[in-house]
Amino acid sequence: MPQKTSADLRSAEWFTAPGLRGFIHRERIAQAGYSRKDYEGRPAIGVFSTWSELNPCHIHFRERAEDVKRGIWAAGGFPLEVPCMSLGEPFMKPTTMLYRDLLAMEVEENLRAHPLDGVVLMGGCDKTTPGMLMGAISMDLPTIFVPSGPMLSGRWRGHPLGSGTDAKRWHDELQAGKITPAQYAEMETAGARSAGHCQTMGTASTMTSLAEVLGFTLPGSASIPAPDSRHRHMASACGRRIVEMVWEDRKPSTFLNPAAFNNARVVLQALGGSTNAPIHLIAMAKRAGITLELADFDARKTNVPVLANIKPSGAYLMEDFFHAGGLLGLMHRIRDALDLSLNGVNGRNWQENLEGAEVFDDDVIRPLDRPVYSRGGLAVLRGNLAPDGCIIKPAAASEHLLKHRGPAIVFESRDDAFDRINSSDLNIDANSVLVLRNCGPVGQGMPEWGMLPLPENLIRAGVRDLVRISDTRMSGTHFGTVVLHAAPEAAVGGPLALVEDGDEIELDVESRTLTLHVSDGELARRRAAWRPRQPKPKGLWRTLYADRVSQADNGADVQAYPEKGIPTDETGSC
Ligand code: FES
Predict the structure, then answer these.
(1) Domains in the chain and their CATH numbers?
(2) Pairing outcome for strands 467-470 and 482-483
């Protein structure tokens, strides 16, 4: 790697500039309490923290930022902590997805505009990981990622409680009369016992793991539980390493390439990871100038079974995964399917990074001949209902519904679904196919509404799953026979907009098809009569977003992608 000198530092353009310009910068950094010895000749490192009291998954980030800064000082750098928009999954409505690209833009422009030579990104709660990495990829300065780490395992009356997954599962039991409201209320304080992101294999665990596979973290980082003292050690090690990375000029463009994304796809299948991962990986790849197609995410393209026995596809939680060997143990187990020649932020390749990695519990990280699910984590479907594709997670679906034909019941919005789901007029039975539309990228910003509720009478009768189809997403912690991301979406006139109650829909996961059994002539008639029905989005950002966002199969990204590769004119101007 090229070695920089202090004269090459980007921050020197601010701090050593001649005349009034340099004076003002030095005067104002002195105002913050720093003297010349603190910053002269040292790489200035942004510590971009998504701490927020509205994001309990990141509530430890104030302390972790101090650990990172300790490492930066120790390695001869100059840390500058910068708050970034935090996308707290539980509280942001209608969805954090609407703000992923706003965070990406904030990270990119904070880097571009400020006297920084490198950055430590602190994220973990779902969209914070792709959002921050997308911005950093676009800017392409030396970058290292500190994953927030999963929270501790939840437990209630002897039952493991996994974020999202078990809240939903036990809610069904509540509706079925199997537990009391008081018992359900007890779980409120038993599930989320510490700082850290959801401890199921939801989007957060998936994306922090994939950030590690892509090379953005120190190896072994993503699986460390948030409250573990080793998480603090990892944070300070990131601080030390980013300073070296600046001298080495080790930027995302030095380790991101198609093979790195291939490794991420393979690990995604073995993790049984979130259905949201393809959207985020496609968006990240496009920002790096790398082509990644939705079809690449079908399990048949990787031939790796699900090995991580973690909820919602499996039985355990991320704390168990960590003690069983974590991501490195899992990667070691599937090393023959990975390109081990690649390296990342630490400059060592995966062959070296996986030395000594082991699996310590074969029930949590299954051997290849005893997988959790043999046919892989994700399936990409096509058909006249989703010509540009849609996705399902068979590992978290009901086996008996993976091939199913039934009459559609159509909901125009989430409110419509909640208002009518228990109406006797609907005539829902176990054969029905629930359709939710107008919730795609343009329609609603893709909220995690895809796991539509089931009617109470069916739950009481023992039904726990129906085929559900939508142009939106579902939480990575959720489960069921749920077809997601149908593209193009209904709000732009995709075929989902043309479905009527009673139309027969056929799902066939084995043949990778989703078919609306309505004649082409009838569909043409309906299309001619179709009119967009979306209300105008509220607020400037939502208006801009709806104007620019791409469809799910293109990563639902608002950025106009550069023709080739990563933009390089990034020295900024002070
Ligand atoms: Fe933050 Fe799930 S709520 S990761």
Answers:
(1) 42-152+194-353 (no CATH), 154-189 (no CATH), 379-529 (3.50.30.80)
(2) parallel
Is the CB of 198 inside a 6 Å radius of any atom of ligand 1?
Answer: yes
**Ligand 1 centre from 163 Cα, in Å?**
8
Instruction: Indicate if ligand 1 lies below 6 Å from the C-beta of 125.
Output: yes
Q: Is 163 in the pocket of ligand 1 (CB under 6 A)?
A: yes
Atom of ligand 1 nearest to the CA of 477: 2
100 CA distance to ligand 1 centroid (A)? Answer: 14
Q: Are strands 433-436 and 403-411 parallel, antiparallel or unpaired?
A: parallel
Q: Which residue CA neighbors atom 2 of ligand 1 most closely?
A: 198
Nearest CA to ligand 1 atom 3: 89
Query: Would you list the DSSP string of 315-376?
Result: SB-HHHHHHTTHHHHHHHHTGGGS-TT-B-TTS-BHHHHTTT---S-TTTB--TTS-SBTT-
Q: Is 157 exposed, middle or buried (0-12, 13-18, 19+ CB in 10 A)?
A: exposed
Beta bridge partners of 137: none
- Rounded distance, CA 574 to CA 572, Å? 7
| Helix (H) / strand (E) containing 161 | strand 159-161
The token duo for 7 is: 């004269």
Provide the residue-wise pLDDT of the chain in tens; the chain has 574 residues. 668 999 999 999 999 999 999 999 999 999 999 999 999 999 999 999 999 999 999 999 999 999 999 999 999 999 999 999 999 999 999 999 999 999 999 999 999 999 999 999 999 999 999 999 999 999 999 999 999 999 999 999 999 999 988 998 999 899 999 999 999 999 999 999 999 999 999 999 999 999 999 999 999 999 999 999 999 999 999 999 999 999 999 999 999 999 999 999 999 999 999 999 999 999 999 999 999 999 999 999 988 999 999 999 899 999 999 999 999 999 999 999 999 999 999 999 999 999 999 999 999 999 999 999 998 789 999 999 999 999 999 988 999 999 999 999 999 999 999 999 999 888 899 999 999 999 999 999 999 999 999 999 999 999 999 999 999 999 888 889 999 999 999 999 999 999 999 999 999 999 999 999 999 999 999 999 999 876 676 789 998 999 899 999 999 999 855 443 444 444 444 4
Whether residue 90 has its Cβ less than 6 Å from ligand 1: yes
CA–CA dist 47, 65 (Å, integer) = 7
Nearest CA to ligand 1 atom 1: 125
Sequence-ordered list of residues with C-beta below 8 angstroms from that of 388, at least 6 positions apart, any chain:
294, 382, 487, 488, 551, 553
Joined together, the tokens standing for residue 155 give 């437990």
The full DSSP string for 164-226 is THHHHHHHHHHHTTSS-HHHHHHGGGTS--SSSB-SSSSHHHHHHHHHHHHT-S-TT-TTS-T
Kindly state if the Cβ of 89 falls inside 6 Å of ligand 1: yes
**HSE-up (13 A, CA, CB side) for residue 29:** 23
